[in-house]
Amino acid sequence: MNILIGFVSIEGQTRKIAEKIAEHVEKAGHRAVFFNVTSMAEYALERPEAVILCAPIHAGRYPAPFVDFVRRERDFLKSVPSAFVSVSLFIRSEFEEEREEARHFPDTLMAETGWTPGRVLNAAGALRYTEYDFFKRWMAKRLAAREGAPTDASQNFEFTDWAELERFVADFLAGVRA
Ligand SMILES: Cc1cc2nc3c(=O)[nH]c(=O)nc-3n(C[C@H](O)[C@H](O)[C@H](O)COP(=O)(O)O)c2cc1C
Question: Which of 79, 88, 86 is nearest to 58 (CA)?
Answer without folding.
Answer: 88
